[in-house]
Amino acid sequence: MLGLVLTTLRHRKAGFAGAFLALFCAAALVCACGALLETGLRGTIAPERYAGAPILVTGDQYVHQDKVKKGKVKHKAKGLAERAWLPAATADRLRAVPGVRSVVTEVTFPAEIPGAAPESSLGHGWESAALTPFTLAAGRAPSAADEVVIDAATARTARLHVGSRVPVTSAVSTGARRVVGVTREALPHQTAIFFSTDEARRLAGRSGAVSAIGVFPATTDAAGRVAAALKGTSATVHTGADRGRAEFWDAEKARIKLISMGGALGGTSLLVAILVVAGTFALSIQQREREIALLRAVAATPRQIRRMIGREALIVSLGAGALGAAAGPLLALWLRDRFRALGALPSTLNLVLSPFPMFAAVLAAVVAAWAAARLSARRSARIRPVEALGEAAISRRTGPFRIVAGLAFLVGGVVLTLVLSSLNTEAASSPVTMLTAIVWTVAVSLLAPVIARVTVTLLGPPLRTSPIGGHLAAANLRSRSRLVGSVLAPLTLLVGLTCTILFAQTTMGHAATEQANAGTVAAHVLGPKVPAAAADALRRTRGVTAVTEVVHSTVRVGLENYGVQGVTPTGLIRTMNLDVRAGSPARLDSGTVAVSETAAARLGVHVGDQIRMTLGDGTPFAPRVVAVYGRGLGFGDLTVAHDLLAAHVDDPRADTVLVAGHAGADALRSAVRPYPGVAVLDQTAVTRARATANAEVNYVAMGLIIAFTGIAVVNTLAMATADRTREFALLRIVGTTRRQVMRMLRWETLVVVSTAVALGTVVALVTLAAFAAGMVGSAAPYVPPVTFLGVIGTASALALIATVLPARLALAARPADVIGSRE
Amino acid sequence: MDDVVMMNAVSKVYGKGRGAVAALREVSVGIPRGRFTAVMGPSGSGKSTFLHCAAGLDTPTSGTVRLGGTELSGMNETRLTELRRRRVGFVFQAFNLVSSLTVEQNITLPLRLSRTKVDRAWLREIVARVGLTERVGHRPAQLSGGQQQRVAIARALVTRPEVVFGDEPTGALDTMTAREVLALLRETVDGMGQTVVMVTHDPVAASYADTVLFLADGRIADAMDAPTSDKVAARMTRLGAWN
After folding, report:
1. Contact indicator for A215, A103 with CB cutoff of 8 Å
2. How far is CA A491 from the centre of its chain?
3. d(Cα A274, Cα B139) in Å, to the nearest integer?
4. Which residue in chain A is spatially nearest to B157 when comparing CA positions?
5. Residues with Cβ < 8 Å from B130, sequence gap 6 or more?
6. Comparing C-alpha atoms, which of A261, A269, A275 is closest to residue A25?
7. Is A439 exposed, middle or buried, given 0-12, 13-18 or 19+ CB atoms closer than 10 A?
8. Which helix (H) or strand (E) holds B212?
9. How far is CA A500 from CA A288, A415, A495, A503, in A?
10. Do B57 and A297 touch (CB under 8 A)?
C-alpha cells in the first residue's frame, strides 16, 4: 500500500504540488507565529542600565485583582502603561536590612541631546552610576546644576567631549549644559545623560520618589531579607534575568501583545490552511476520479481508498511541514525586523527561536492535511467502480452532507455576526472579525457548487451573446459547476479576507480621524513633546485666546484598559469640541473625569457617578464623572485635567498643544523657538498618524495571510487549467483556434472572478457592518474606493495569470499528440 | 451443468416513479464454467447493466445473483469488493491501467490491495502468455493500445479468478490488434480453463465465443452456440441493431 502511495505521489507530482505548496506556506506561517508566541511567553530581556545591581527594587508594574470563578479565587495581574515610582523612604528601610552592604537610588526621566542616538534617551542622577556600573573615562562627576556626564556612545555620535556645551531638552527645563565628564561604558539600547543628584531630582519632577533602588548585598541571603523587609509595601524585588523585565517594563507590554498576536495570527493561518488544503486536495481527487474508480473496480475497498488518500496526505504534509518549519524561523526574523521598524517590538526583546514552534508547524501541517484528506475522502468513497467503465465524464450531484454543513456554517456566520455587532473593545472585536469572515467564507465554499450553478444560470444568457468564446465558456461553466465551485472558494476567501482586514482598519481609522478632525476646533496644532514652559510662552503670544495642552496615557478600570487624554480645562471649548452629551468638561479638575458615551455605557456610569481606576503609574484615582461626550474614538474614552495626568506619566510634555485665536503660525513659531523639536503641525496629519500607527502592524501580520491565500488562488486555478489539456486539444482538433480557446478561458475567468468578488465583498461588508456597529456605533464601514478597486484588480490579475499561463502551456503541444496519448 | 454465475429473475430499474427506466427485466441465465460467453445487443439493450449486475459492480433492484456459489444480494460494498478481488477479473474498454504504476505493478495491483503474496512463477507464466515478458518495467504511456489491453488481461488473470468480465475490451482497438486480444482471451479459455464473459457489439468479436447471448430491451432474446460473425450479424440485424 505504501509503495502504491509513493509511486502515485512521484508520478502525480503536479497534482500534489498544489497541496504541498499550501502546506509549506501554512507550516512556515505557523512556525513564525509560534516563534512570536514563544518570544512573548519566554522572551528574556537582559538588564542594561541595572546590570550592576545584584538586587533591584522597583515599583509594582501591575494592577492586581482577585477574580472568584466557580468558588476558586484566581489572581489576575495586568501591566501598567507608565513607570511606577517608589517612595524614597523605601531606600532608608533597605539600608537597615542586615546583610545589605549599600543601597543606591535613582531617578529616571526623558532627556534628549540633539544629534545623539534616537533610541530612548534618559536622564539620571550621577549617584546611580554604580547601578550599571558607569565609570568616568574622562573629566569628573557633575556637581553644579548645569553640569552633565554623558555616555561614551553618545559622546561619539554627537561629537561631544569634556568642555563642550550642549542643549539638553527635558520636560522641566531646556537649556545649554556643560559636559564635565564622559563615561567609559555605553548601553546598547539607550542614551544615558547624568546630572548632579539635586538637579536630577528637580528635572524628574517627583519629589520624594525614586524610580528604582539597587541593593548591593554583603551576604548571599540578602535578597530574601530584602523581600521580607518590603513585605506589605508595593515594592517588588528582582534578581538575575528578572531585572531586565523590571528595567524594560514597557517591553512587557510588547510581550503580551506578541502572545495575543502570535496566537491570533497562528490560529487564523491554521484555519485558512485547512480551508485551502482541503480545496486543493478535493480538486486533486476530483481530477483522479477515473483512477480511483479503476482501483475500486480492480479490488480496492472504500476504506483502502480512504487510507490511500490519508497516507498521501500524511507524506505530503510531513515533507511540506518539515520544509515549512525550516523556513519558519527566517519568516519570524523578517517579521521581527518589520515589527521593530514599526515600533511594535522593542529592540531589547530578543526573538526566541527554539525547536518547539518547528514541531508545532509540522504538527499543524499534518493536522491540516489530515483534516483536509478526511473531508475529501468522504467524496472519494462515493466514487463507484462502475464509473471506470464508461467513457463519459463523471458528473455528480452535490452531496446532502455538504449542503447541510454549508447551511450550518451559514447559521454560524449569522450568530458570529450578531455577537460581533455587540463587541465594543478592540481586543475582543479583532479576532472575532477574522473568525466571522472565515466562517462566512467556509459556508460559501461548502455551498460553492450550488452557487456556481445559480451564477451560471444567471450569467449564461449575457455570455452567449459572444458567439464562440462566450458560448463555449457558458457551456463549460454549466457542465463543470463542481470545478467552478472549487476555484470559487479560494478566490472568495482572498477577496473576503483582504477586504475585511483592510477595511476594518480604514473603518476604525476613518471614524477616529473624522471625530478628531471634527472635534479639533483650534486654529493651530503644535507638537510633539511640548514642555509646559513652551505652552506658557504660547499663552503669552498676542492674539492667542486659548491654549490646550494634551497628554495621552492608558489607565486601568478594574483590569481593563482605557485610553485617556489629559487636557487643559481652561478655554477647552475654544480648542476642542468633544461633542458633549451631558455635563460640562469645563468642570474638569483634579478630582473629576469626562467619559465617552461607549465607555460610559460599558462602565454603567452617568454624570455624578464615581469611577475607581488605576492611573498609568499605579496611583489609584477615583474621580467623579462631570461630562459624557460623543467623540470617544477620536479623543479617547476618558478625559481628565492635564495637570493631573501629566503628574502620572513618564514624559509630562504635551503630545500636542491646541492653540485658538487669530495669531498666525509664524507668531507661534517664534514663541516656541527656544524649545527645539516643537513645531506647528498639520492637524489632519497628526490625527491620521495616530490612526494608522496600529494599523500598519496589523497589515504586516495579516498581509502574510493574504499572500498565503493569493498563493492558494494561483495554485487552484493553475491545477484546474493544467488538467484540461485534453479538452483544449479536442477543441483545437474540431477547429477552434488557439485565440478562441484563450478567449473562452478569459470569459470563464471573468465569470468566476466576478462571482468571487461579489461573494467576497458581501462577506466582507456583512462582517464589517457588524464590526462597525460594535466599534464605531454605526453599521457603515468605510471602504476607500481606490483601495477596493485595487483589491479587485489584484484578484482578477492573479486569477487571469494563473489561468492563462498554464493554458498557454497546455496549448503548446500538438493537439493530435495530446489526443493520441493515453492516460 | 456447472454455472459460475447464476442470475435468477434479475431486474434493474434506474430512477423512480414516472421517469423510471428498466434496464434489465427478469433476466434468468447461467454462465457455464470454462466457457467463453459473449453478450450482444443493440445500444440501450441492457448489456452493460447485465455485466455490472453479474460481476457485483452494481446491485439489482430485484432478483438474485450467485457468483461461484455465493449469494451477492445483501452484501455491502466492502464485502462485494473483497469478493470481486478474489473471484472476478475485469478488462474494460479503455483507461484500464494506473498510469503511475509499471506493467508489473499494474498486474499485481489486486494482490497488493488484498495483501496477498505474489506467486512469482504464476506471474511469470501469465506475463509470458500475454507476451509482455520484455515490458514488465514499462509504464502504460509507453505501450500501444493492444499492449495495454494485454496488461489488463494479465491483471484480470493474476488472482486466478472464477470468471473474467470484459466490457467491450476491443472497442478502442484497430481490427488487427483486436484480433490479437480476442485470440488471447480465447487462449485463456482453451489453455487455462478460464471462464470469460464479454460484452461487445462487434459480430467478429462475438464469433470468438462459445456462446452468444442476445439482449434486447432488457431481456435475453436469444442464445447461439458455435457462432460465426455472419450468423451473429444476421441475428443482430433481425434484432434491429443496424436499422
Report:
1. yes
2. 24
3. 34
4. A298
5. B150, B151, B153, B154, B184
6. A269
7. buried
8. strand B211-216
9. 35, 18, 8, 5
10. yes
Q: In chain A, which residues have their Cβ closer than 8 Å to the Cβ of B167?
A: 389
Q: Answer whether A325's CB lies under 8 Å from A31's CB.
A: yes
- Rounded distance between C-alpha atoms, residue A251 and residue A345, angstroms: 8
Report whether the peptide linkage leading into residue A490 is cis, meaning its omega lies within 30 degrees of zero.
no
- Spell out which residues of chain A touch residue B140, defining contact as CB-CB under 8 Å: 822-823
**Residue A38 corresponds to which cell in the numbers above?**
514563544
CA distance B57 to chain A (A): 6
Residue A41 half-sphere exposure, CB side, CA atoms within 13 Å? 13
Query: Nearest 5°: CA angle at A473, between A467 and A479?
Result: 130
Q: Give the Å distances, CA to CA, from A346 to A131, A279, A471, A693, B203.
A: 22, 39, 59, 15, 85
Q: Which three cell numbers mark B40? A: 450482444
DSSP per-residue string spanning A623-659: PEEEEEES-HHHH-SEEEEHHHHHTTSS--SBSEEEE
Q: What is the mean pLDDT of chain A?
A: 85
Q: Nearest CA to CA, how far is B39 from chain A (Å)? A: 16
What distance in Å separates residue B118's CA from the closest CA in chain A? 14
**pLDDT of the residue at A693:** 63
CA B220/CA B25 separation, integer angstroms: 9
**pLDDT beyond 60 at A714:** yes
> What distance lies between CA A697 and its chain's CA centroid?
5
Angle between helices A13-42 and A2-11 (to 10 degrees): 100
> Side chain identity at A349, as an amino acid letter?
L
**Amino acid letter for position B161:** P
What backbone torsions phi and psi does residue B4 show, to the nearest 5 degrees? Answer: -75, -45
Query: How far apart are the C-alpha atoms of A656 and A636, rounded to whole Å?
Result: 14
Cβ(B56)–Cβ(B165) under 8 Å? no
The DSSP-derived string for B113-142 is HTTPPP-HHHHHHHHHHTT-GGGTT--GGG
Residues A200, A124: Cα–Cα separation, whole Å: 6
Length reported for chain A? 823
Rg of chain A on CA atoms, in Å: 33
Q: What angle do CA A726, A732, A735 make, to 5 degrees?
A: 145
- Over residues A443-485, the pLDDT tens digits come to 998 888 888 888 878 877 877 777 777 777 887 777 777 778 7
Which one has a higher pLDDT value, A154 or A297? A154
Burial of B14 (0-12, 13-18, 19+ CB in 10 A): exposed
pLDDT tens digits for range A135-192: 999 989 999 989 999 999 888 988 888 998 988 888 888 888 999 999 998 888 889 9
For A713, the 3-state DSSP assignment is helix
Order the strands of the B21-32 sheet from edge to edge: B21-32, B3-14, B62-67, B70-71
For chain B, the residue count is 243
Test A299 with B155 for CB contact under 8 angstroms.
no
Instruction: Report how far residue A28's alpha carbon sits from residue A444's, in angstroms, rounded to the nearest whole number.
Output: 27
E strand intervals along A80-155: 86-87, 100-106, 108-112, 121-125, 136-139, 147-150
Question: Which helix (H) or strand (E) covers residue A77, if one does?
Answer: strand A72-79
ipTM for the predicted complex comes to: 0.79
A393 DSSP assignment: P
Summarize the confidence of residues A300-306 as an average pLDDT: 82
Which of A729, A727, B125, B152 is closest to B143 using CA atoms?
B152
Which residues of B sit within 8 Å Cβ distance of A?
48, 52, 57-58, 77-78, 81-82, 84-85, 90, 92-101, 105, 109-110, 112-114, 140-141, 145, 148, 155, 159, 167
